[in-house]
């Protein structure tokens, strides 16, 4: 199973290059099923077109429209492969048996019945499947899976077809200890556990999407994240036990490797502060109920210590910038009922996280992280932690300094700069 | 039932305009089903993309690719209608129940099972259906219907849904007595029979495609050809009896109307002459067998009178220019076996035809046509006739003069010039 992102098939030349890779894999004796995203900016162009005719395009029709993107890329890729002398057949999500619920724009896969794919590979053909799309079990309408949908399609099909591995190709060489655009000494991680990858993805690393990693973890499907522009090994995302085995062998050479795997950052956050909340039971609950009712996912929460004088407190939380306006409107509507004073909105914040499975058994990790930030002059606004992660919210202008400081503090860097290209369509 | 061609939905503004028309029809109390072509040049762009990755794109994948075009237009049109406050749902050919054979690129409709369309209109929604496409009954693969496919989809659905009329919208006001670009006095024909329309289409008039008219004729589905840019009545294509009834009323005012309906011309023809063919039984058959085996459709045939001296004759025939190379190659291959001397290829020819149901009962029509051509200095290279048509092949440079002469000779012109726009995607 191979999956190619939009940047890998951005134009005819890219399609031909990917076709050659696929044929090489086939020639090496493998059965190949390929999931492909829409070419380059196709999806954005289709969204622009939708917005030209409708300020709020209906979800069913938007799905119908957007799935044209993968239809184009998969057909063109199948043509390019056949032009190299190998049989190839393209299949829509529906034809490939990707059965979803009816939630247009963010459908969930509820079953995969890849009978036509099995028939194609049984006849020695290469199957090309449209990522990102499926068909609703109840309405029979075409659905899209939302962000990360193509990666999820690839993993789900890999599981259903009992593939050995799901290779996810983009224009990046793998998963790095930090974003190489802001940390030139970032090093490619050879192996990483599903859990660490989930934390990296949740904290803003853009290579793999949460849903796809969750799916792979549930069914223990190894993911190989690699670049379609080079032949280099990428990063293997596997179960924790498999990482530990390899890492313990490597430990003597590189002691710190096990503790922190990487530094993730996320510029897409915003912070809302609810000022002057009466400090009595149920007030915080009422605030977060209002936000939850507006379908907003909040991330970190900080409640200041109440001032004894006034009996008032401030509550801050972070959320995706795109949901900021909705949250502010929802909160403003309950202001009188809850009785808080005012709302503050700040989207010039960012989140920096260190992630590592070794963290839970190594004391002092948070302290070393915070010291490094302090020495670099970075002010910590909020903190949250999990078993294998420590995240801080900082001013957006200080993200880069925070990443660099953390990367150095945990000795994640390589001695030489590894060449990488960044991009991707986010689909 | 309404069908909108690619020129009517060339951009977002066009889509909005068409959406408003559809909503107006709905508001007038009609149930509306709409068949739509791909937007503007989308199909050509997709074909270019295919050619960039493959010199001979496989037909199954080309169909998969091209159907993305209608998927885009139908979804965007449904959005635009919903934005006007009316429920609209888009359906692919497959979802609309357009069942075809498995001949990719030129599939034939073998059944229409529009259950989902009926359900949509039953729920008072406007159904938008992708033209030009269907699904193979045997392979379940996506197929396209080839040229004229969207018009044929519209008529087939209109028949299956027992629609009152199939309105076919383009950027032309209707069917004209001649192409207004070369005959400024061309007049819109208010009514025309299926048979005359078939002849006009076969002889190069570009408004309706043969297949669609054949389908409408078989099931007696009235077609109203009109412009999406104006509110004017267009041309009604109906059964001959219905034309005759109306025309006989009009006869006193416009005596010639019944005899000739229009002048068609076709620049896409080429002429092949097989020089020096031994004049003995079976030679002509062998030549046309070779051409037929290469899947070439030939149109007119002329065999010169054999020269007694040499016992050799020349055979000329016309065919579409696009098939010229194939035919020449096929004939060259049998030259020695048949023993002809040489081949001549001429693509600077054109065909001009007069069409009219009244012709069969009116003597002297051919004579008057040929006299008019002669007076205009047009040299006739070949002639063919049917019950309701006389066609001549002339030099390409003389097409315009021939059309003008015929138009004048049969007094087809109107006194004032009717404004029309020409274009269309040929799909």
TrEMBL record, chains A, B:
Top-level enzyme category: transferase
Documented EC number(s): 2.7.2.4
Keyword vocabulary terms for this entry: Amino-acid biosynthesis, ATP-binding, Diaminopimelate biosynthesis, Kinase, Lysine biosynthesis, Nucleotide-binding, Transferase
Residues reported to bind substrate: 43, 70
Catalytic reactions on record: L-aspartate + ATP = 4-phospho-L-aspartate + ADP
UniProt xrefs under Gene3D superfamilies: Acetylglutamate kinase-like, VC0802-like
Residue ranges of domain ACT in the record: 272-357
InterPro entries: AceGlu_kinase-like_sf (IPR036393), ACT-like_dom_sf (IPR045865), ACT_Aspartokinase (IPR054352), ACT_dom (IPR002912), AKii-LysC-BS (IPR041740), Asp/Glu/Uridylate_kinase (IPR001048), Asp_kin_monofn (IPR005260), Asp_kinase (IPR001341)
Annotated Gene Ontology cellular component terms: cytosol
Pathway: Amino-acid biosynthesis; L-threonine biosynthesis; L-threonine from L-aspartate: step 1/5; Amino-acid biosynthesis; L-lysine biosynthesis via DAP pathway; (S)-tetrahydrodipicolinate from L-aspartate: step 1/4; Amino-acid biosynthesis; L-methionine biosynthesis via de novo pathway; L-homoserine from L-aspartate: step 1/3
SUPFAM superfamilies to which the protein is assigned, alphabetical: ACT-like, Carbamate kinase-like
GO terms of molecular function: aspartate kinase activity; ATP binding
Binding site for ATP: 3-6, 181
Pfam family, one: AA_kinase
GO biological process, one term: diaminopimelate biosynthetic process
Family of this protein: Belongs to the aspartokinase family.
Job of this protein: Catalyzes the phosphorylation of the beta-carboxyl group of aspartic acid with ATP to yield 4-phospho-L-aspartate, which is involved in the branched biosynthetic pathway leading to the biosynthesis of amino acids lysine, threonine, isoleucine and methionine.
Protein name: Aspartokinase
Organism placement in taxonomy: Bacteria, Bacillati, Actinomycetota, Actinomycetes, Propionibacteriales
